[in-house]
Design a protein that fits this description.
single chain, alpha+beta, 2 domains, 3-stranded antiparallel sheet, two-stranded antiparallel ribbon, globular
């Protein structure tokens, strides 16, 4: 049975954490809406493993609007499809089915649970592969759909898409990705990308 306690990370944030055998699980986050730069714990106190609070959806106590959440998924999906064409995987039926679940979530026709199941399918596919390009592409596809659950997965999706390309092509592709950002998420994404 999980133990519940509150952790004070920053004077302006309060996170209720449930500790279980698999690590901390977050059940409630209280954020001031005017302080978007706050970070919250993911799975440790290591600052490199913290989540950007600006990507937490309004319905979970964050500042990210539903439209921004959907725009993040659309942008990531568009970027991943672009890379899939470049690496010759744009007609891969498994990838297309998984990405279709993400689109269905955006359109209100699939639940977050259905999206998570599609993500698990992508993980299973990636675990069976040996080719690093296809592994990166599969992980990118999975992270696109995981955006339905946690919006910051959109950033991981486009990063994995870059890893599917030759190193010489990554900088230009990243610039192309940034140029595709809709105005509603441009500042959010550009300030969050490392």
């Amino acid at each position: 049975m999980p133990i519940s306690r509150e952790v004070k990370h920053n004077p302006l944030t309060k996170v209720k954490v449930e500790l279980s055998n698999s690590g901390p699980l977050f059940s409630k986050l209280l954020l001031p809406s005017l302080i978007p730069e706050l970070l919250v714990f993911r799975n440790s106190t290591d600052p490199s493993r913290m989540r950007d609070a600006r990507f937490i959806a309004e319905h979970r106590g964050g500042v990210l609007t539903k439209q921004q959440h959907q725009d993040l998924l659309d942008w990531a999906c568009f970027c991943i499809r672009h890379v899939l064409v470049r690496i010759g995987e744009d007609s891969n039926p498994s990838f297309m089915r998984i990405l279709d679940v993400g689109r269905a979530w955006k359109d209100g026709k699939a639940s977050v649970g259905e999206a998570r199941n599609a993500v698990f399918a992508a993980i299973a596919i990636a675990q069976e592969l040996d080719d690093p390009v296809k592994i990166s592409a599969t992980r990118a596809v999975g992270h696109v759909v995981a955006t339905a659950h946690m919006a910051d997965h959109s950033l991981r999706a486009v990063d994995y898409a870059l890893k599917a390309l030759d190193k010489d092509d990554r900088s230009a592709e990243r610039q192309w990705q940034n140029e595709q950002l809709p105005a509603s998420i441009r500042t959010l994404v550009l300030t969050a990308r490392k």
